[in-house]
Automatic annotation (TrEMBL):
Function: Small GTPase required for proper nuclear import of RNA polymerase II and III (RNAPII and RNAPIII). May act at an RNAP assembly step prior to nuclear import. Small GTPase required for proper localization of RNA polymerase II (RNAPII). May act at an RNAP assembly step prior to nuclear import.
Cell membrane is among the record's keywords: no
Family: Belongs to the GPN-loop GTPase family.
UniProt keywords, alphabetically: GTP-binding, Hydrolase, Nucleotide-binding
Name by which UniProt lists this protein: GPN-loop GTPase 3
Biological classification of the source: Eukaryota, Metazoa, Chordata, Craniata, Vertebrata
Source organism (scientific name): Oryzias latipes
Record's keyword annotation contains Translocase: no
Amino acid sequence: MPRYAQLVMGPAGSGKSTYCSTMTQHAEALNRSVQVVNLDPAAEHFNYPVMADIRELIQVDDVMEDDSLRFGPNGGLVFCMEYFANNFDWLEESLGHVEDDYILFDCPGQIELYTHLPVMRQLVEQLQQWEFRVCGVFLVDSQFMVESFKFISGVMAALSAMVSLEIPQVNIMTKMDLLSPKAKKEIEKYLDPDMYSMMEDSSHTIRSAKFKKLTKAICDLIDDYSMVRFLPFDRTDEEGINIVLQHIDFSIQYGEDLELKEPKEGDEEPANLNYDEIFQDTVGS
């Protein structure tokens, strides 16, 4: 039987650890077994139990304090992740070989790990060799996404991870519970965005013709191919949490040996799903 994994990604401060904690509590209420692995060697505190912690293998503080390396925080984290990639046997031993495992990997927030470094892609390939079905879960802070250009920046970050990892990906706006009622209403247009309207609304702020042309090309790409959509995540809303989990389960066909997992009728279609891969997995099972 396959095993299942969520790669929980997103910028620093986007709520990755809170998401993992909320999901484990929600799964416990549903009588589901969900484990968490911490892959952030710079993590200091998290309020969930872990089945494996990369800090047992290597820590950023130790790397930065090494006089022969002399790394800063970002260089130290990259070094730690490359060291981790050369020691996947530690992770394999920590995970064991339990069938039907469902594991959340709480990943570091540095965007370079998902853009021009191969570490996270190597992790995905290794997990797939261990018969994991992997879904990327990309988080962005809803408080950051309240202006058109900030939203486009968040979309591009999510798109970079999706293109780099080549796995099904569900994008989530976190911290919805921290928004004011007015901000919640305002942010609804970013959940299923009309990029052309956003471009028109912000056109008066773009002074450079070249920048305006580039921004329009990006908006066209996102809108024409429906490449990035977001789901809201409010940690106080059990129904909303369940909808997010349904979308992710559907993308990796969790429990397909029992019944086909589909979102509830009327829910938004899952974002960025690799339907060819899902179809092949379903036919081959």
